[in-house]
From TrEMBL:
Residues 53-233 form the MoaB/Mog domain. Signal peptide: none annotated. InterPro entries: FLAD1_M, MoaB/Mog-like_dom_sf, MoaB/Mog_dom. GO terms for molecular function: FAD diphosphatase activity. It comes from Hyaloscypha variabilis (strain UAMH 11265 / GT02V1 / F) (Meliniomyces variabilis). GO terms for biological process: flavin-containing compound metabolic process. This is Molybdopterin binding protein.
Length: 328
């Protein structure tokens, strides 16, 4: 099994936040949160992207009401671009939780995405919490507001809604375009509109924290829309990303463990990761080879197939047959 226990331990652990990125002149941990310098934020906004993290925010996910698919989409997005997704966390709609997590992630990873908590209701507190985390104020973003008025469609339950009347419904809608803004920085670096047909903005806070909605269709479209802005900052500017080779084996993991351990140590200097994944109730397990050098990966296939008595597959499970048990 490919280090699953150690991976689980890492994800369960909650390291103490490191606020070393906060400048001495700007440091403030009072009601306005931790302030960071505009130069530091600009550096984060332009640095080469090696690592990424995803923060899923929502009581509905933790309560089992909603199944999170955005983290899986984020993982595929990063894999395709060659970013190393180092952490995925799911937290509650709780200000303290959001503040702690987003500060830590901004400090530790190059590209951070949050999902959820930016709607019109009282429990949508992502914008205000992230503003507090970095000592920013919420300000009405005029372009986002104009786009909202132009592109959003009236809800059937609000046939008489008017943008010109100061009503509770209008105030609720404005919560979605009141964004954390650093007035010392270029506004265009802080608010991005990846699609002309969507009014929904992507707020980029502290140079590397990108706030996305939790609705999967919007999350996916907006994340994909960020790709042109990210490719020039990748360690591989051509954005070729990673390659994955799947090899199906009838052998138990315990049977091939010695060989895979030796192989992993041999190919690690070449940037290749070797994985082994059990498939309970099936007659095959899966060995994976992941790396950026496609030619080198291909050169390993015949050797691996021979040593695990397996064969390459395009999709995991394409050669499945049901069995009653699976020896681990």
């Amino acid at each position: 099994m490919f280090s699953r226990l150690s991976q689980l331990a890492r994800h369960i652990s909650r390291p103490l936040p490191n606020y070393a990125h906060t400048s001495a002149a700007a440091a403030s941990s009072g009601a306005r949160g931790v302030m960071t310098s505009s130069s530091a934020a600009d550096e984060r906004n332009s640095r080469t992207i090696h690592t990424a993290a995803c923060l899923i925010i929502g009581d509905e996910v933790l309560g089992g009401k909603t199944v999170d698919t955005n983290s899986a989409y984020m993982a595929k997005f990063c894999f395709g671009l060659g970013m190393v997704l180092k952490r995925i966390e799911v937290i509650a709609d709780d200000e303290d939780e959001i503040v702690e997590a987003v500060r830590r992630m901004s400090n530790n990873y190059d590209f951070v995405v949050t999902s959820g908590g930016i709607g019109p209701t009282h429990d949508d507190i992502t914008y205000q919490s992230i503003a507090k985390a970095f000592g920013l104020k919420l300000k009405l973003h005029q372009e986002a507001y104009e786009r909202m008025k132009k592109l959003s469609k009236p809800h059937p339950s609000q046939p008489n809604f008017s943008w010109d009347e100061d009503t509770p419904a209008r105030k609720a809608k404005l919560r979605m375009v009141e964004l954390p803004i650093d007035e010392s920085r270029d506004l265009k670096k802080q608010v991005i509109f990846p699609h002309e047909d969507l009014w929904v903005p992507v707020a980029c806070i502290n140079g590397n924290v990108h706030i996305l909605p939790g609705i999967p269709s919007l999350f996916e479209k907006l994340l994909d829309g960020l790709k042109p802005l990210l490719t020039t900052r990748l360690s591989d500017p051509e954005g070729k990303g990673n390659y994955r080779i799947l090899i199906s084996t009838p052998q138990a993991e315990s049977e091939v463990a010695t060989y895979l351990t030796e192989l992993a140590g041999r190919v690690e200097p070449k940037g290749v990761k070797v994985g082994s994944y059990p498939r309970w109730g099936k007659n095959t397990n899966t060995v994976t080879l992941v790396g950026r050098d496609q030619e080198f990966l291909e050169s390993l296939v015949a050797e691996v197939e021979k040593n695990v008595d397996g064969h390459r597959v395009a999709v995991e499970g394409e050669d499945d047959e049901e069995t009653n048990a699976n020896d681990q």
